[in-house]
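Researcher: We plan to redesign the surface later, but first we want a full-length starting point. Tokens attached.
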């Protein structure tokens, strides 16, 4: 298939393109900087195109594409103002422009990447659950999901929005908890945890995430929202202990008991994607950390 990807130079984009090329798809990566695209994809295995994400630019780029996979997004930072949804206004604008371009080109399929953050902090969350985000980033993503649900009634392009659990894997950016744990354990340093490590997170390993997206791209029947995750969560304590076990850094954890535990996170019901795509995760926590370790060793 001919597949166009936004946000191709990010963690998810780089890995997804690796899989799509293995599956012999024709991939076009678009972004604002040709230099960044060439740095990330130095050979000629994919097409690289620059865009300002305007309707005019996207309409030209989407010509003859069969699938558009939208990964580009302004992410939440530690200093993001929780009162300002305007911090993420570009996210909705780009989605709007992409949808208009899809409609003009009669593009068969548009895949949007959403997030578990659109949901309340509950378990067994189904796609029919009303949005109740706990962060301003989640609010912005929920608005996009609602917009896409509305637009689906207006255009022929099949729209799928994938609500991804938290991603992790080899090559993810520094500054995130999982990456921090791996870096410290690899260097035999002490992992620090707030409270007793009771806060929980539903993660999905990068290999599982890209398989799910690829399967969605190849399916010609589905549309709407789909949860993409494991359906379970791990405590920070369990994650730290597993990372230390794999990197032979056992017991090297400091619990900052004077600081409160974080939140007990959301857990998604993933039965819909299992039923519609016969897809489920293949990587458990231990196996995925072992895979990360192998990648680090191969890099060395």
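Model: Full-length starting sequence:
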């Amino acid at each position: 298939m001919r597949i166009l990807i936004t946000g191709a130079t990010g963690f998810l984009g780089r890995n997804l393109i690796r899989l799509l090329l293995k599956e012999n798809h024709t991939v076009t990566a678009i972004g604002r900087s040709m230099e960044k695209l060439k740095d990330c994809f130095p050979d000629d295995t994919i097409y690289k195109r620059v865009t300002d994400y305007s309707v005019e630019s996207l309409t030209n780029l989407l010509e003859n594409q069969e699938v558009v996979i939208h990964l580009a997004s302004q992410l939440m930072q530690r200093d993001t103002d929780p009162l300002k949804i305007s911090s993420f206004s570009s996210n909705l604008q780009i989605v709007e422009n992409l949808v208009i371009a899809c409609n003009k080109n009669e593009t068969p399929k548009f895949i949007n990447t959403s997030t578990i953050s659109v949901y309340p902090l509950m378990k067994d969350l189904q796609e029919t659950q009303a949005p109740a985000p706990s962060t301003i980033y989640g609010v912005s993503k929920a608005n996009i999901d609602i917009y896409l649900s509305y637009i689906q009634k207006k255009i022929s392009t099949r729209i799928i929005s994938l609500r991804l659990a938290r991603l992790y894997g080899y090559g993810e950016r520094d500054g995130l908890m999982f990456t921090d744990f791996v870096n410290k354990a690899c260097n035999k340093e002490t992992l620090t945890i707030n409270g007793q490590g009771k806060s929980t997170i539903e993660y999905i390993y990068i290999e599982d995430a890209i398989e799910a997206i690829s399967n969605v791209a190849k399916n010609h029947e589905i549309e709407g929202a789909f949860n993409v995750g494991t359906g379970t969560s791990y405590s920070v304590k369990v994650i730290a202990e597993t990372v230390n076990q794999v990197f032979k850094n056992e017991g090297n954890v400091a619990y900052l008991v004077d600081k409160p535990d974080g939140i007990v996170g959301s857990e998604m019901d993933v039965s819909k994607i299992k039923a519609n795509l016969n897809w489920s995760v293949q990587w458990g926590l231990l196996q995925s950390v072992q895979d990360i370790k192998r990648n680090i060793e191969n890099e060395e």
